[in-house]
Specification:
240 residues, mainly alpha, three-stranded mixed beta sheet, 8 helices
Amino acid sequence: MDGHRDPPFDPTAELARIRAATDRLLRTAARLTDADVRAPSLLPGWSRGHVLTHLARNADGGRRLLSWARTGVRTPEYPGLAQRDAEIEAGAGRGAAELLADLRASAAAFEAEYRRMPAGAWQHTVRWTRGQERPAFRAADARRCEVLVHHVDLDAGFTPAQWPPDFTHAMLARVAAALAARPDAPAVRLRATDTGAAHDLGAANSRAPLARAPQHVLLAWLMGRAPAPAPGLPEPPFLY
């Protein structure tokens, strides 16, 4: 089994990674026309406009969590999931220029709040909308994950093969661990052909199906962003 552990949180390095992912997303969004943003994304029932609006509101939510950690004043990520969904739906029909401006402004506001964080505040516990209580630094890697994964969901030229290897390696370990803890996870052995990472899901043993592929292919499959890397593999339960 892969003994991967995430490295200690480095705010400066993580911000550079978030900025790189965001800049690439903004370049993609800047190429989209009004017709493009009304077209379907890879997410069922969502247009590209839905995805772009979700990413903007996610930046707002992350900014509020960081403010909570920095000031101690409770500022929830979202008032509730229903309001979050309503905001996404309300913003999805905007034109390409307005969507891009919102995406750019919300990302800049997130970064500005990020830069205000004192070193000790990253360890302060905040609560996500679904109830998870985690240190504030998880809002940083969560933001990068949102940008990279939903960039793929735009179906506009950016694919899992372009995910940074450090992200893919760490995220594969996290997703595999999350799925392995679920009672509905099928038995399957994961083996990354490019890194040697090995993870087992469900009651995996030597007779369990073997999924062998580069790590980005395994991760995209587990996250529902790609077909199974080989015939006969069980379908993983929805996670993200």
